Amino acid sequence: MSWAQAADAIAGACFLVGAFLALIAAIGILRLPDLLSRMHAATKPQVLGLWLVLIGLGFRLREPGAIGILVLVALFQLLTTPVANHMMGRASIRAGQVREELLVVNDLDRVASDHQEPRGAP
């Protein structure tokens, strides 16, 4: 087996596992009961699935320029997804869209009770 065949086999395995993780994320978004659980299901397996797909694409393309761009995409995804989901979670707690009975610990309860969320556009 040559290096190209081994790289293609690794790429195929990464594509399959990444697609499986994306499927798990989609099922979690549809099946979980509340907003915070759905956000967790969308973030965790989706980011790992994207990383695996990008790794598989790097093994398939085998060009330094393309691998550099794939690394940048992976880093930006890793930096922006947790921040975006954190801000969405805070906004949903402030807007009262979180089911309080499903939370074990709510560190934002004190902050959210003092804040009045404006309704509608200014």
Number of strands: 0
Q: What is the helix content?
A: over 70%
Mind describing the biggest β-sheet?
none
**Average of pLDDT:** 85
Strand content: under 5%
The domain count comes to 1
State the order of secondary-structure elements, H for helix, E for strand. Answer: HHHH
Q: Quick one: overall form?
A: elongated
Characterization of this structure:
The chain is mostly helical and 122 residues long. It has one domain (3-114). It has helices at 3-31, 35-61, 64-94, 109-114. Helix 1 runs antiparallel to helix 2 (35-61).
Question: What can be said about this structure in brief?
Answer:
The protein is an all-alpha fold. 76% of the residues lie in helices and 0% in strands. It has one domain (3-114).
Notable traits:
122 residues; mainly alpha; 76% helix; transmembrane; Monovalent cation/H(+) antiporter subunit G; transmembrane helix; PhaG_MnhG_YufB; sodium:proton antiporter activity
What are the SSEs and their pairings?
Elements: H1 3-31, H2 35-61, H3 64-94, H4 109-114
Helix pairs in contact: 1-2, 2-3
